[in-house]
Design goal:
This protein is of the alpha/beta class and 485 residues long. It has helices at residues 18-30, 45-50, 86-89, 107-125, 142-145, 147-153, 203-210, 219-224, 228-231, 235-240, 277-288, 310-322, 335-347, 360-369, 385-392, 402-407, 413-418, 431-445, 448-460, 466-484, and strands at residues 2-6, 36-42, 55-63, 66-75, 78-84, 137-141, 162-166, 174-175, 196-197, 200-202, 213-216, 245-247, 297-301, 326-330, 352-355, 372-375, 395-399, 424-426. It is 40% helix and 18% strand. The longest helix has 19 residues, at 107-125. The chain binds adenosine-5'-diphosphate (ADP). Adenosine-5'-diphosphate (ADP) is lined by residues 17-18, 21, 168, 301-303, 330-331, 358-360, 363, 382-385. It catalyses: [(1->4)-alpha-D-glucosyl](n) + ADP-alpha-D-glucose = [(1->4)-alpha-D-glucosyl](n+1) + ADP + H(+).
């Protein structure tokens, strides 16, 4: 089976969040199920620097007004199709925003171009010639690629089955109606059954409307987004499409994330040598300028945003210090939240520290050396850092929502007795409940036998892609069968 995956970020080429991890790892895991994936992604400067010896597979004189080539290249086991269009993608800043954090002014055109290229390839644009290729299925990720099925729906060529995956429904790609004439879609596409959304154009909405199937990244989130609280305006459409909505939990790349072989950590270890983690713990404390004692070391590896519940943690940091714990925060985001953590660090020197940067290797060391990772998200489609935590014996302290709910087993009396507990979870998500969860975590830490048992249980959990890749392969197969029927 041949699949075209379309994503705006793919690890290890470019990453701003979990989407990149998924887009980079799922194709590798699908190989085991006889599924070959080519991944179409934008040629940002960072991506263009990494690809050498690429072949031009297709050229557009005008793709939504700009010249573009589709380059094919293999990179670390991934078959990549790179949309090389300097007008759209060769510019400073990140994939979505400039260096000041302001969205690129033409994101609507950049990602419509990505989607249109994806639709053209899906419908046979690269099928000619000796090395001609056409996918059986298209799998698109988030709003940046969600217009692929819409472009296919309104093209002359026959559609092929599509799957739209929602990694975070908070990001919807909503634009004004004034962009519609430039999207190169027929006038009737601007309707309730097409791309129209609250009077404007909605990219994710268009994908949810026209995609053959929809998935999101955990079973709990698949249920939550049917409610107004989590659906963020799309709950009605999703309820209408409920029969085609699936929840498949993300896995992680257990080759890259392996404490026994990880080169980014100070000392490698396994579940049988957990004491070795102490070396990593010292290294984390040193990197953050924290004091060293025998108390628990908590960490945060996250965007500092309201979604991630970071305001709640900022309120609770004083409690952590009182409990004899330390906290290392890695991440940046909202200025006010960054300032709150800086203020806490200034108030509790040696006990709380924050590094407002993005540092992939340091994130590995923190998982390998911290005792627990705090994830108090208000909503969390899947979440990856708790999965890394489980794999590294870094106990997740999580809000009971979305994928966090599906992957962490709370240390309740029953779970502790049955030795199934892998973390601490709390809900509803309030500062008070977070405080209680942190207190509970510290109490558990003070009982090394219980703590070690939880670490070992977490390290035993299956967080690989194996099972989930199988579920995606099955979903693809069902979609193909639907095409034939
Ligand atoms: P989201 O995609 O909503 O940001 P996820 O938990 O799904 O959240 O994925 C976040 C990914 O980004 C994880 O791989 C996490 O380790 C990584 N990450 C987040 N912040 C940082 C940071 N400051 N430095 C390094 N890695 C980070």
């Amino acid at each position: 089976m041949q699949v075209l995956s379309v994503a705006s970020e793919v690890y290890p080429l470019i990453k701003t969040g979990g989407l990149a991890d998924v887009a980079g790892a799922l194709p590798l895991a699908l190989k085991g199920y006889g599924v070959s994936v080519k991944t179409l992604m934008p040629g940002y400067p960072a991506v263009m620097r990494m690809v050498e010896n690429a072949t031009v597979r297709m050229s557009f004189e005008s793709l939504l007004g700009a010249k573009a080539d589709v380059l094919e290249v293999e990179h670390q086991g991934l078959d990549l199709l790179i949309l090389d269009s300097p007008t759209f993608f060769d510019r400073p800043g990140g994939p979505y925003a400039d260096a000041t954090g302001k969205d690129h002014f033409d994101n609507w055109r950049r990602f419509a171009a990505l989607s249109k290229a994806g639709a053209i390839i899906a419908q046979g644009g690269m099928a000619q010639g000796e090395s001609g290729w056409q996918p059986d299925i298209v799998h698109v990720h988030d709003w940046q690629a969600a217009m692929v099925p819409a472009y296919m729906r309104y093209a002359a060529e026959p559609e092929i089955p599509t799957l739209v995956t929602i990694h975070n429904i908070a990001f919807q790609g909503q634009f004004g109606a004034d962009i519609f004439p430039y999207l190169e879609l027929p006038p009737h596409a601007f309707g309730i059954g097409g791309v129209e959304y609250f009077g404007g154009v909605g990219y994710l909405k268009a994908g949810l409307q026209t995609g053959w199937a929809i998935s999101t990244v955990s079973p709990s989130y698949a249920e939550e987004i049917l409610t107004p609280e989590f659906g963020m305006g799309l709950e009605g459409l999703l309820a209408y499409r409920a029969a085609d909505l699936h929840g498949i939990v993300n896995g992680i790349d257990t080759g890259i994330w392996n404490p026994a072989t990880d080169t980014a950590v100070k000392a490698n270890y396994t579940a049988a040598s957990l004491k070795t983690r102490a070396e990593n713990k010292r290294a984390v404390a040193e990197r953050f300028g924290l004091i060293e004692d025998d108390g628990p070391l908590f960490c945060v590896i996250s965007r500092l945003t309201w979604q991630k519940g970071m305001d709640l943690l900022a309120e609770a940091v004083g409690d952590l210090v009182e409990l004899g714990a330390r906290l290392a925060v890695l991440g940046s985001g909202d200025r006010a939240l960054e300032n709150a953590f800086h203020a806490a660090a200034a108030h509790h020197p040696g006990r709380i520290a924050v590094l407002p940067t993005y540092d992939e290797p340091l994130s590995h060391l923190m998982q390998a050396g911290s005792d627990a990772i705090i994830i108090p998200s208000r909503f969390e489609p899947c979440g990856l850092t708790q999965l890394y935590g489980l794999r590294y014996g870094c106990i997740p302290v999580v809000a009971r929502t979305g994928g966090l709910n599906d992957t962490v087993i709370d240390a309740s009396h029953a779970a502790l007795a049955a030795k199934t507990a892998t973390g601490v979870s709390f809900g509803p998500v309030t500062a008070g409940n977070l405080r209680r969860a942190l207190r509970r975590a510290v109490r558990l830490y003070r009982d090394p036998k219980v703590w070690t048992a939880m670490q070992k249980q977490g390290m035993k959990s299956d967080v690989s892609w194996e099972k989930s890749a199988g579920l995606y392969a099955e979903l693809y197969k069902n979609l193909l069968a639907r095409k034939g029927s």
